[in-house]
């Protein structure tokens, strides 16, 4: 009997793969390392590494933050795709990179103590400090994070591995910058670290937003709304009661729609 086959890819298509099921239920990881690389929360399934077959991997790079694991990302678009513990027979695969439907559900949340305050327990801040996982990119935003948008669109799914969370920055002061960019099909430019793949910013039509997950607590931010929810993965529900939109037409607080 043939096993189920799931295909997946990064946003730019430089990394394409198939995974032979059954797939492990999804774990959402809130640890600082996964937050920085994904830009919010990383959601992953897992298979024995022998069940993962690469169709294309010319842009795949690996980064190790510790001796315990290595993290695979696409150097063409910054998508955070794989995680493998040292010596483990299994490899974790970003759930958001899989073509749907996956038939999966989120079974557990890990490392909630490391979670961003902007989606757990909002705290005040006068400025936002951020850095990618490897530290090659460091920046300051001179105001609190404010409202944070969760974007469930296909592009954000592929690059973040789950869905993205970002806020509009009036200004960004870079203290270190060693990044690359990828221009998406709709003209948006995503900036990410070339060494560790952490998502940094997204610029479209002159507005630059910053990935919330690369920022340090306290952020002064709070999750505000979910956009492009029609494109979300099938393996999670949005149940926090915040406004949802099929597009990105939800007004920010204090402005008119
Ligand atoms: Zn890519
Ligand atoms: Zn980095
Ligand atoms: Zn998006």
Structure description:
The chain has 257 residues and is mainly beta. It has two domains: 5-110, Metal Binding Protein, Guanine Nucleotide Exchange Factor, Chain A; 117-231, Metal Binding Protein, Guanine Nucleotide Exchange Factor, Chain A (Beta Complex). Helices cover 5% and strands 42% of the residues. It contains two helices and 20 strands. It has helices at 32-38, 154-160, and strands at residues 5-9, 15-20, 26-29, 42-48, 52-57, 60-66, 69-74, 80-85, 90-94, 106-110, 128-131, 138-141, 146-151, 164-168, 173-176, 179-183, 189-193, 199-204, 207-211, 221-227. The strands form four sheets. The chain has a seven-stranded mixed beta sheet with strand order 6-7-8-9-4-3-10. A seven-stranded mixed beta sheet has the order 16-17-18-19-14-13-20. A hairpin with a 4-residue loop joins strand 8 and strand 9 (90-94). It is globular, with a radius of gyration of 17 Å. It starts with a strand and ends in a 30-residue tail after the last strand. The model has no long low-confidence stretch (mean pLDDT 95). One zinc ion (ZN) binds next to loops.
């Amino acid at each position: 009997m043939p096993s189920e086959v799931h295909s997946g890819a990064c946003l730019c298509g430089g990394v394409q793969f198939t995974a032979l099921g059954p797939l492990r239920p999804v774990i959402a990881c809130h640890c600082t390392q996964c937050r920085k690389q994904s830009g919010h929360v990383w959601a992953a399934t897992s298979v024995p590494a022998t069940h993962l077959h690469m169709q294309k991997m010319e842009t795949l790079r690996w980064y190790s933050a510790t001796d315990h694991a290595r993290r695979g990302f696409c150097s063409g678009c910054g998508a955070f795709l794989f995680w493998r513990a040292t010596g483990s027979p299994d490899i974790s695969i970003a759930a958001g990179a899989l073509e749907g439907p996956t038939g999966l559900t989120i079974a557990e949340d890990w490392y909630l103590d490391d979670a961003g305050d902007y989606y757990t327990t909002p705290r005040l801040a006068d400025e936002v400090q951020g850095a990618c996982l490897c530290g090659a990119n460091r920046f300051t935003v001179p105001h609190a994070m404010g409202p944070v948008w969760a974007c469930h669109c296909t592009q954000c799914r592929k690059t973040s591995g789950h869905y993205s969370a970002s806020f509009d920055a009036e200004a960004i002061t870079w203290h270190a910058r060693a990044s690359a960019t990828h221009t998406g099909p709709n003209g948006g430019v995503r900036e990410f670290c070339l060494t560790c793949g952490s998502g940094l910013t997204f610029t479209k039509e002159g507005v630059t937003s910053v990935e919330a997950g690369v920022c340090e607590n306290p952020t002064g931010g709070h999750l505000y709304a979910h956009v492009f929810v029609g494109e979300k993965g099938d393996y999670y529900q949005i149940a926090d009661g915040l406004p949802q939109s099929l597009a990105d037409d939800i007004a920010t607080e204090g402005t008119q729609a």
